[in-house]
Amino acid sequence: QPEGVEPGLIPESSAPPGGEVELAIHMKTRSGWHGYWLNPGDAGLPMAVKWELPEGYAVGPLRYPVPTRLTVAGIMNYVFEKDYAVLTRLKVPKDATGSVPIRASATWLACTDKICVPEKGTMSLDLPVGIVAPERREQFDEWRRALPRPLVTPAKFEISGDKLLVAISLPRVVEV
To answer: What is the pLDDT of residue 84?
Structure first.
């Protein structure tokens, strides 16, 4: 049983044959603990997931929400101090029927301001195959809004000697 952060696997809806369904790894974070973003910063580790899926099924990349910055003893980290969801899309083959057994094992680092504990857990789900309206759309919409958004401003690149200079205009709401 994980001590600081506990994972759970949640589908947005059933699995449509020949389509995709959004899955969430919902990380429940105990008070005083935190988990790490894909780029953990100066310390920490991101989550690693090993999927067990039937032939013909595939998951896409993990999509993390925007983290918060946490500085401990001068070390900058990108963390989640509250519950969060890491999203992925399950690709379903055209000939899918019945239900699909989804199994995953994960490892992650959970920390307080005093200790860090390497944690692990398993998640499982028997997802019905079919076309059903998303049952958890409101919750998944909230989790999707927490994902980073691409910048819509163009970037400028310039090579100066042996250096690459990059200039990107950031919106006012972006903290630097």
So the answer is: 97
Query: What backbone torsions phi and psi does residue 144 show, to the nearest 5 degrees?
Result: -65, -35
Q: What are 23-79's pLDDT values in tens digits? A: 999 999 999 999 999 999 998 899 999 999 999 999 999 999 999 999 988 889 999
Other C-beta atoms lying within 10 Å of the C-beta of residue 47: 21
- Residues forming beta bridges with residue 28, ordered by sequence position: 6
CA 166 to each of CA 137, 159, 173: distance values in angstroms, whole numbers, following the listed order: 38, 9, 20
Nearest to 150 by CA among 84, 69, 78, 66: 66
Output the CA torsion sign for 73, 74, 77, 83.
positive
What's the alpha-carbon Rg for the chain, to the nearest Å? Answer: 19
State phi, psi for 168 to the nearest 5 degrees.
Answer: -130, 125
Please state the separation of Cα 117 from the chain's center in Å: 20
